[in-house]
Amino acid sequence: MTTPYKVKFEAEINPKIKEEMDYWGLDPQDVIKAAIEYNIINAIKRQTDNRCRKCKKTLQHSIPKDKRSEIKGGFCTCG
Question: What is this structure's pTM?
Answer without folding.
Answer: 0.59
